[in-house]
Please model this.
Amino acid sequence: MDRKINVSIYNEFLHETTVETVRAIYPRGIHGTIKGFLEEDEAIGTIRCATLQDHRETLGQAVLDDTDVMIWWGHMRHHEVDDKVAAAVVKRVINGMGLIALHSAHASKPFQMLLGTDTYNLRWREAGEKVRLWTIIKNHPIARGLGETFVVPHDETYGEPFGIPQPDEQIFISWFQGGEVFRSGCTWRRGEGRIFYLQNGHETFPVYHQKEIQRVIANAVKWACPILRDCPRDRGGGNVPPLEPYSPENGDFTPVTTG
Ligand code: ZN
Model:
């Protein structure tokens, strides 16, 4: 990559401001913690943050156009995200911007619009169970530097069946202490854009402080970064004359003309 990767982080930022135990884990907000470890990565350039409260101003078109990869964390107030902003994010993904949906962002507007999914289509339980992630595609860029398996000591349990379209790539699968399994690391492509979903990261546990999870997210940012930040919106196409000359007099096929 011949340029630094610009990242925008959307975080709902409600739990951290209303629940003391969550504030203690994420005093700068979940977005602040994610920004903090991404800032240490030389490949990453400008990092912007947006919250539910300010996203109409902070996620304007100019910012989206300057963003290579969007990271999204939301939980309680997905429905309060502005439809116009969500649609603009979706359009940017179609035109090449990467999207990393974390934890309950499976129910966010951009994720659901891009994947055609329905709200909360999974099993869940807030029991602080141990989670063991298994790397299924060891040679995938998102799994770089991670072992065959690692443990998140405590997280919310999500379980199959997960109502997602079949992923293009299944990079991680998780086992939860209570018996569930979950497709916890999945990729899809939509238009020119790459999408990665990571299950981990319930707000009452310090999941985004864990080195392996930070590694997954940093890897995913690099994987999802488009080669062209400014992918042309007009991709050409349409009704066009032939590129190769041909002549029916020389035995070439006779073109059918209409109109
Ligand atoms: Zn949660």
